[in-house]
Structures are given as structure tokens and as C-alpha cells.
Amino acid sequence: MAHIIVVGNEKGGAGKSTMSMHVATALARMGHKVGALDLDLRQRSFGRYMDNRRAYCAREGLDLPTPEYHDLPDIDHDQLDPGENIFDRRLSAAVAGMESEVDFILIDCPGSHTRLSQVAHSLADTLITPLNDSFVDFDLLARIEQPSGKILGPSIYSEMVWSARQLRAQAGLPAIDWIVLRNRLGAQQMHNKKKMGDALENLSRRIGFRVAPGFSERVIFRELFPNGLTLLDLKDIGVKGLNLSNVAARQELRDLMLALNLPGVRVDF
User: Fold this and answer.
1) CB 149 within 8 A of CB 199
2) How far apart are the first and last CA of the chain?
3) DSSP secondary structure, 23-86, as one string
4) What domain of life is recorded for the organism (predicted)?
5) In whole angstroms, what is the distance from residue 131 CA to residue 70 CA?
6) Where on the phi/psi map is residue 23: left (φ > 0), alpha (ψ -120 to 50), or beta?
7) Phi, psi of 3 (to 5 degrees)
């Protein structure tokens, strides 16, 4: 059965869609069959990223390794069991249609609390939570007393993940491997970086997640989106002599894939 990777938090602007595209495409480039879903039915940033990739490949006559992207299927209300939620059925039908055909299913969640996101978290074998290196984003994970910095308790998103873990335990499923990524790191603000790092390490021991480095804030990520490209595609489209920033970004992606420790994945780029 497919290993399900969920990328989520409950705040926009943390780089979820960029992370989703790079992880899914990296797996496809390493020879794995990858299915992909975007649960943000309104904005569809990940879905549009995939649309851009297909259009670019068709326009340029390229065959770049690409995840198999699927929209959620439409469900007739007459097909629902009494009391069944239509979003639950749409998501379960999408996953069931892929899980025996692919090695991984990557699900990108919206930056808000929705029924689809809640159910997706309970399906996660691996949960990736990109987090801006800011205490504004940290507040989604835990409440902090000021000025002491003492952690008072889990916040809304952590409580949702805890509920998903309980559902999986009741169903006899393996525990979620939860990874929080310090994403969109800037080159400055070293004092804030240290405070964030200390707070995340402290919280990780209390509520059970791993901390891993994500992507630094780089212009290249904004430039790749319109053509649906990733860092690993640059050589294939004729970009030679990558600059130091692009080389460093590629290394960040490699470090991320190693940190995820996905089953059967040998990172070879």
C-alpha cells in the first residue's frame, strides 16, 4: 500500500505548495510512482503548480519526471451512506483509486482548518509541517508565556494532530512520523533563530515531532512556479553552471529528503 505524506499546517504563506512540489517531484525523479492531491479546493496552489508543469512540458516537448496529479472525484449525494460526509467520501475515493498503483501519495492541505484537512491528517504516515521561523507561526503549535518564554501548552494545530494520532491508534495504524520544518529562513536575525530553535527543540520533546531544516528564502522558488519546475529540473532544461544560491538550495532539498527518512527511498541526487 502507498505511504501517505501529508503537508499541512493551519497558516498560509509557510511554503507548503513549494515543499509539496519539490518532495513529490524528487520522489518521482528517484524512480518512485507518486500520486498527488491538493485539498485547497479554492486556491489550488499545488494543483496550479502541477498544471504549469504539464503545460511547460507540452510546450517545450519535454518528458520530465512528474507525479500523477488527481483532482478529488465528484460524488453524487445519492451514493452517500446515511450521515456520511461528502468530503470524507471524496477524499477516501481519491486515495483508494491510487493507493495500490503508486508508492507514495502526497496530499497538500489548505492553510486553514477544514474537514478535508482534518481527515487527511488522520491518513498521514508522514506529516510535514513547514513553519516560518517566527513566533507568529510557532503560536500554531504552542502557547508561550511572556516574557519568560515558558511553554504553557499545545495550541490549535497540535491539538488537531493529537486527535489524528488518536484516531490512527484506535484503528491499529502505525503512529504518524511528524516533522516540523523551519522554512523560509532568512540570512539575518540570528538571535531570533536561536530562540526559535530552542523553543522548537523543547516543544518537540513534549508533543512528539522531529525538527528538520527546510528551505531558505530564495528568489529561485518564485521563478520556478510559473513553469511548474523544481530545483532538480534546471539541468534538464539547459541551465548550466548553477550559481551558488541554486547549488545551496539543491543541497537543502537533499538534506530535507534525507531527514524525511521515507521507506524505500535512497536519496541519490
Assistant:
1) yes
2) 26
3) HHHHHHHTT--EEEEE--TTT-HHHHHHHHHHHHHHHHT------EE-PPPP--GGGSPTT--H
4) Bacteria
5) 26
6) alpha
7) -85, 125
Which fold does the domain 1-258 belong to in CATH?
A: Rossmann fold (3.40.50)
Locate cell 491508534: which residue? Answer: 169
- Angstrom distances, CA of residue 171 to CA of 92, 118, 167, 174, 265: 15, 16, 6, 9, 26
Q: What are 148-191's pLDDT values in tens digits?
A: 778 888 899 999 999 999 999 999 999 999 999 998 776 555 66
The mean predicted confidence, pLDDT, of the chain is 92
pLDDT in tens, 50-93: 999 999 999 999 999 999 999 999 999 888 999 999 999 999 99
Q: Is the pTM of this model over 0.85?
A: yes
CA distances from 69 to 34, 38, 77, 145, 230 (A): 8, 8, 24, 43, 16
Please name the amino acid found at residue 15: G
The whole-angstrom separation of Cα 26 and Cα 228 is: 13
